[in-house]
């Protein structure tokens, strides 16, 4: 609804009285004695939690999670007696039968269609989508993507076809590139508006950020000037666009594409593969990075530095002894779509029918699907997968 749709007189209502938030939960009610809680205390504890959550739900001003769970809760409660576990690949039935993988696949396919990913999933077609429903949340989705990106960009072969019975999935390291010592040393870029879980994922997976690599290897060569100090010090994250103050705190929350391009150019010129995380719905400002504009801006940089197609040698074929060579990209663009990727396509669909939906967008709409960005290389042996939530 447009904010201009209300007549001015109706908007000038008296402020609502403040609501007493009530007490917080008392930790003493939940202290577990050695023998556990007896039935009375356990019921009292559950009642206290119930009262507290109901009260908080009613007065929550906002957070990026729905509190309207009633219908869903009643629908789904009947499945509680089952120990459902969709373990493993959703596209393989598996031996644990109390699963709902058929439902999971239907949801995945719905989003693959919405985001214009190549579908249906086909194990024989590495360009077709793959994905799974996260059990944890976006932290897990980002970690999964980052893990794949790290291995891909550092030249590992993900899966060797089994050569003998019981031969497990093996990770194979790339042979060193004698002409470029940085060829398998990826560098991660993400903006200062990126969710803090991303920095944790980077640390857990041992992926190095441009800040860490810059400090360690190129301490005096930072191509950006800090707007506050005027010094060329490596920022910890890619700056976001500045606001009226000239700094980013009052800016829109979008990544500063100029700054990103300068940083990426610097590391690409040093021979590093590049991992870029973009946000579609940043946590605190709900900002959308312009995925298409970033891809269009970075593609010439990747072309200039041989990152669109590069050969990675990762050992030799056990049968023929010939080198195993992949032609891969030297870059990976990830979109953390935790808050926006789910609804961005619907905004665009609604905008196509302004009369039907009674809504005309007041700003340019965010774009998110697998059609925007760069084409995959011809001979990639890697799956391109929807990894956002
Ligand atoms: C943009 C963004 N990415 C990642 C996360 C982490 O998601 P989760 O808490 O579901 O793991 C959040 C959580 O709010 C987020 O807003």
UniProtKB/TrEMBL annotation:
Residues 1-17 have a biased composition (Low complexity). The keyword Translocase does not apply. Belongs to the group II decarboxylase family. It comes from Kitasatospora aureofaciens. One of its GO terms (molecular function) is carboxy-lyase activity. It comes from the Bacteria. Residues 1-28 are annotated as: Disordered. This is Histidine decarboxylase. The keyword Lyase applies. Keywords: Decarboxylase, Lyase.
């Amino acid at each position: 609804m447009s904010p201009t749709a209300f007549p001015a007189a109706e908007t000038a209502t008296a402020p609502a009285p403040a609501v007493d938030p009530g007490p917080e939960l008392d930790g003493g009610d939940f202290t577990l004695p050695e023998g556990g809680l007896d039935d009375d205390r356990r019921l009292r504890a559950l009642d206290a939690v119930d009262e507290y959550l109901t009260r908080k739900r009613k007065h929550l001003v906002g957070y990026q999670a729905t509190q309207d769970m009633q219908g869903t809760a009643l629908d789904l409660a009947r499945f509680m007696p089952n120990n459902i576990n969709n373990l493993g690949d959703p596209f393989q039935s598996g031996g644990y039968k109390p699963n709902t993988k058929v439902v999971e696949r239907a949801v995945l396919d719905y989003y693959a269609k919405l985001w214009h990913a190549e579908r249906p999933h086909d194990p024989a077609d590495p360009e077709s989508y793959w994905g799974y429903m996260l059990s944890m949340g976006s932290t897990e989705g980002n970690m999964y993507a980052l893990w794949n990106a790290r291995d891909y960009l550092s030249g590992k072969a993900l899966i060797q076809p089994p050569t003998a019975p019981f031969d497990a999935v093996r990770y194979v390291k790339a042979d060193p590139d004698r002409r470029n010592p940085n060829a398998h040393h990826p560098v991660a870029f993400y903006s200062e508006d990126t969710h803090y879980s991303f920095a944790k994922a980077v640390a857990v997976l041992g992926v190095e950020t441009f800040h860490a690599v810059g400090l360690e290897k190129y301490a005096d060569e930072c191509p950006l000037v800090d707007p506050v100090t005027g010094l060329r010090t490596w920022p910890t994250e890619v700056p976001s666009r500045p606001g009226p103050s000239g700094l980013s705190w009052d800016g829109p929350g979008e990544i500063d594409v100029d700054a990103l391009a300068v940083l990426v150019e610097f590391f690409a010129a040093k021979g590093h593969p590049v991992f870029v995380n973009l946000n579609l719905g940043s946590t605190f400002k709900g900002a959308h990075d312009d995925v298409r504009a970033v891809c269009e801006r970075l593609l010439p940089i990747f072309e200039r530095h041989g990152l669109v197609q590069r050969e990675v040698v990762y050992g030799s074929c056990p049968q023929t002894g010939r080198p195993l060579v992949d032609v891969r990209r030297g870059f990976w663009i990830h979109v953390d779509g935790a808050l926006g990727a789910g609804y961005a396509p619907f905004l665009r669909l609604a905008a196509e029918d302004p009369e039907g939906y009674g809504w005309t967008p007041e700003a340019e709409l965010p774009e998110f699907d697998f059609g925007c960005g760069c084409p995959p290389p011809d001979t990639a042996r890697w799956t391109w997968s929807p990894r956002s939530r």
